[in-house]
Amino acid sequence: MIRQWQLRAAFAARLSEMYGREVPAYTTLVDVSREVNEDVLRARGADAERLGSIGRVTSERHGAIRVGTPGELRQVARVFGALGMRPVGHYDLRDTAGSALPVVSTAFRPVAEDELARNPFRVFTSLLTVDDPRFFDVDLRSRLTQFLAGRELFPPELLTLADRAEAERELPDAAAERFLHLAVRVFELSAEPVDRAWYETLARVSAVAADIGGVRSTHINHLTPRVLDIDELYRRMTARGIEMIDTIQGPPHRPGADVLLRQTSFRALAEPRAMRAPDGRVTRGSLRVRFGEVEARGIALTRAGRARYDRVLALVDERAAHRPPAERADVTRALWAEHLPGTERELAAQGLGFFTYHAVRDRPADGGRPPTGIGALLNGGWVRAEPIVYEDFLPRSAAGIFQSNLSDRGSRNTGQEGGSYDDAWLAGAVDRDVLDPFALYERQRARSLAGVADALGLAAAPSPG
After folding, report:
1. What is the rounded distance in angstroms from the CA atom of residue 82 to the CA atom of residue 7?
2. Considering 208, 260, 287, 461, which has the largest number of Cβ atoms within 10 A of its Cβ?
3. What is the distance between the alpha carbons of residues 68 and 412, in angstroms, rounded to a whole number?
4. What angle do CA 312, 313, 316 make, to 5 degrees?
5. Tens-digit pLDDT profile for residues 261-299
6. Who contacts 152 (Cβ-Cβ below 8 Å, separation ≥6)?
7. DSSP labels, 219-259
8. What is the dihedral sign for C-alpha 198, 200, 203, 204?
9. Domain ranges in the chain with CATH number 3.10.180.80
10. What are the CB-based long-range contacts (under 8 Å, 24+) for 181-187?
């Protein structure tokens, strides 16, 4: 029997192999990521594994896919449910970038700590907002709805196997092999000719809309390795002659304590595609829809920490937006240093970062009673803090990656009201609970604090700040 986490690991590995065949630059990205990780491990030793073992980090991937209808999203949820992956977070990208991005997204991932440790594969999954009149007028919406209704992305056999794997949390060897074969094949780039006129109609609204609704299949848009030094990776990829996007998205590098998520990518490549003209002739063309993203993960921030993060972003936009790149970088670093603590201890003591806490067994006895606050317990050597890695995504960074790989800005009718695609709508669309990432981190922290209370004989769990 093949358990869910083994299915997930095998699916991630096979998807990576397939994507490497289709996009050779991705293989280069994986190779350079591995080299950087090995160099960081040699230079920093055990400290390099503070946010995950080197085995986990090197094998870690997140994918990105796009679908067109709530029905397709529900089917995606069934496929990923087979792999022990739950929908976490709601990301509305429609107003987060200058380019037209008519999508809302969630991320399917494992949620239990032991499952994340075994294989933390994630898939950032975007849904086309067909009913948003800012992007699609009545006529185009009708044509798009009809087109999407006429396609089948996920074969019934795959969905039947997925439901069985989710219900039983495992599959027999032969069924697991068939499931993996079908699941990987769904996300291969189709050789079916693309209707050029229809694709171009949607591309005038948004390149993302065309990628989702302009073809009769779906595909993996990018597959992202994790790297321990994204700045060094950026330098090495550029030195190999691979064109990278202009920036690293997310907070600047912080030597004491990187937080949240930093991402960059090589630019979308022109890939050959068969194109069908209105007269039926099939010619050779190309499309730029897939790119190679890489990420560096830091410490998860609490709700208070994220509020602080959002304020810093607003200050950066206000004070640095129109400066030359070098000055902007200096201003950005200064603002981050001013407004967010630079060490793990300060993030923990101020309740800005998520950590698990553990009683120090060999602390010298001094006759005193342990205090009740985390800051005092840390300062007194009663407990140690282990950072919780950020497992999720940032809407602004995701939109920045999308935007940096688009050929034009598309169109958006700002005179119209955007359709409602809120948390409740997304949960209905996916037909299962969409989990709150903050609640997941808070639960993990709370379990550790309860353990501290037991170990130190406290009447109640310590306050996390």
Report:
1. 8
2. 208
3. 18
4. 85
5. 999 998 887 889 999 999 999 999 988 888 889 999 999
6. none
7. ---EEEEB-S-HHHHHHHHHHTTPPBPSS-BSSPP-SS--B
8. negative
9. 2-300+391-434
10. 182/155, 182/157, 182/158, 183/11, 183/79, 183/158, 184/11, 184/14, 184/15, 184/18, 186/79, 186/153, 186/154, 186/155, 186/158, 186/217, 186/218, 187/15, 187/18, 187/63, 187/65, 187/218, 187/219, 187/220
Distance in angstroms (rounded) separating the CA atoms of residues 368 and 346: 24
Token pair of 102 as six digits: 């008519």
C-alpha–C-alpha distance, residues 217 and 66, integer Å: 10
pLDDT tens, 225-245?
A: 999 999 999 999 999 988 888
CA torsion, ordered 54, 223, 244, 206, to nearest 10 deg: -150
**H helix or E strand, kind and range, residue 28:** helix 24-44
Alpha helices in 259-302 (DSSP H): none
Point out which residues pair with 65 in neighbouring strands. Answer: 125
Q: How far apart are the first and last CA of the chain?
A: 45
Any idea how long the chain is? 465
- Structure tokens that stand for 104 in this block: 């809302």
Q: What is the CATH number of domain 2-300+391-434?
A: 3.10.180.80
In this predicted model, what pLDDT tens digit does every residue of 64-99 receive, in sequence order?
Answer: 999 999 999 999 999 999 999 999 999 999 988 677
Residues 374 and 462: their CA atoms lie apart, in Å, by 6
96 phi and psi angles, rounded to 5 deg? -100, 0
66 forms bridges with which residues in the sheet?
A: 126
CA nearest to 122, candidates 198, 257, 223, 18 = 223
- Written as one string, the DSSP assignment of 77-124 is HHHHHTTT-EEEEEEE-TTSSSS---EEEEEEE--SHHHHHH---EEE
What CA–CA distance (Å, rounded) separates 69 from 80? 17
What's the maximum distance between 2 C-alpha atoms anywhere in the chain? 89
Rounded to 10°, the helix 24-44/4-22 angle is 120
Distance from chain centroid for Cα 446: 25
